[in-house]
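Notebook B, p. 112. Complex prediction, attempt 2.
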Amino acid sequence: MARNEVLVDTEWALAHIDDPKIVFVEVDEDTAAYEANHIRGAVGLNWRTELQDGVRRDIIRKESIEALLSAKGIANDDTVVLYGGNNNWFAAYAYWYLKLYGHQDVRLLDGGRKKWELDGLELVSEPTVRPATTYVATEQDRSLRSFRDDVLNAIGTKNLVDVRSPDEYAGRLLAPAHLPQETSQVAGHVPTAVNIPWSKAANDDGTFKSDDELKSLYEGAGVDLDKDTIAYCRIGERSSHTWFVLRELLGIQNVTNYDGSWTEYGSLVDVPVAVGDAPGQA
Amino acid sequence: MSSCGAVVGGVSLDHVDVTKQAVIQGVISNSAGPASTGYARLNDKNGEFVAEVPLSERGEFRFFAAPGTWTVVALIPGGTSRTDVTAELGQIADLDITL
């Protein structure tokens, strides 16, 4: 898929902001960000209350995503342009999520909310109301998603890419440094996983690096892109960013996101864990 | 479930046992006062990105690091700066960054 079919820049966004078939969707952990202000006409998605199953630890089911997108006024034939804070982590997660449920035309706004703000572009506080639709989702496309057993089976055989920061990978930090370092899991990484932090794929303003730079980044780190690749982080947002880079920007099809990520793996009993800066042995 | 996400200004210290944390926090200002729009980024000693938070309305940010040397990168409209800082367990490193 060509880069311009999955990624739009601010100029494109400004030119299409009033197109009724293009829906801008902001996704942040912090819903206060959307409520405070957002791109004119954008609807908000709350990853915690709207994209997580309230009972099981899982993403929401087909019927729930259909009800959610219908209520937000998103139709099957709309172009959805996702953007958000955190250098588009949550927007990339929502992108992966919508692809999982078969939405055809999804794109990311390059640089997300940060670039929009730093460029001084207009943000409004009025909530957006779009007429409800009748959204029909497909069954989950499991070729985009990995589970814990897939990860265990991939040790020493497939590419495992840990996209957290080097200190989280090595086990010196348990969580990203803007969060308290108190979690129940052990620290470290899946043995044989290479550490390619998501941030190496992005410029300071949150935009993605060029395709050539991205390809050299993964190949330079010894990732054989002909093999299957599983990306993971802590809870699946940052790895969605890397999944987007590999599958959507570079067009490598055999890439999955392990959304259980370290929060799940680091809590499993009787599985191998590596600590330190080296990938470790199978 | 805790998220990987960043909240404006950083997570509150309420209910956090700071004796077990190595906190780096501060305020980023421009010539008009605290910057209400912008981001604070934390890089490790090798210059690698570790975390980033949007500034609060009062220009505030907070990180929970590990003991060691770090760099806080201030990103505000029209300006960027880098400030080195040392974090220690049980200590709060307070920065006042003006661009």
